[in-house]
Each structure stands twice: as structure tokens, then as C-alpha cells.
Design a protein that fits this description.
With 123 residues, the protein is mostly helical. The protein has one domain: AhpD-like. Helix content is 67%, strand content 0%. Helix 1 packs across helix 5 and helix 2 packs antiparallel against helix 3.
Length: 123
Amino acid sequence: MRQEGGDDLAVEQVKDDWRQMELTKAEYAMLEYAEKLTLTPRSMTEADVQKLRDAGWSDRDILDIVHVCAYFNFRVRVVDGLGLELGNWQIQRARAGSERAARLAQERGVPMPSDPWRVRQAG
């Protein structure tokens, strides 16, 4: 999301609990679908696809959702399967995003949803 110009605070909120965010019906359906596909892929049925259609997603959109979800799951499994660790630049990048999100949360007067890098403790 950050690479696509997403708000740093929204990124942290999605990571923490996307169900607590103000989302459109379509966004909620997409995230619910992606979560189910990630956690319990064998339980997916045509009814799950129909929920996306009912929320306004086209069949092309649904294919894109599946491709993006599958791609990220593939990446995670390759990294985990090889026992790779995050590089220092990746940690720094995540920390910088969390720092920006913490500033946005403070400016907007909303709680920071998560603090995986202990950004608030460092400052």
C-alpha cells in the first residue's frame, strides 16, 4: 500500500485490524476474501466469489484480487521456506513507515493501531 501511495496510518490500521477501519462494502468484501484465501484456501467456494460480485467487483477484478493475494502468499512462503531473514534496509523501511504513521496518528488525534518496531518507545 505504501508503494502505491497509501497513507502510512492506513497501512498500520490494515496490519493491525482492518475490520476496525471505515471501509466501503467492496473493500470489506475484498479483504475478507483475501484473508480467507490466505488462511483457509481449501474452504473457498463459489459463494465466496459471489460475495465479491455482490459487493460490486467484476470478474476481472476478482481475478486480479486472487492474483495479488496468491502472489504475496507465494512470496511469503518462498522467504519462509528458505529461512530468510529481513535485511536491515527492510527493517529500516518498515520502521520509517511506522514513524510516519505515528506522526499522522498524533496529528489526527487517533490512536496508533500497532507499534511493531516500538516507534513510540524510541521517541
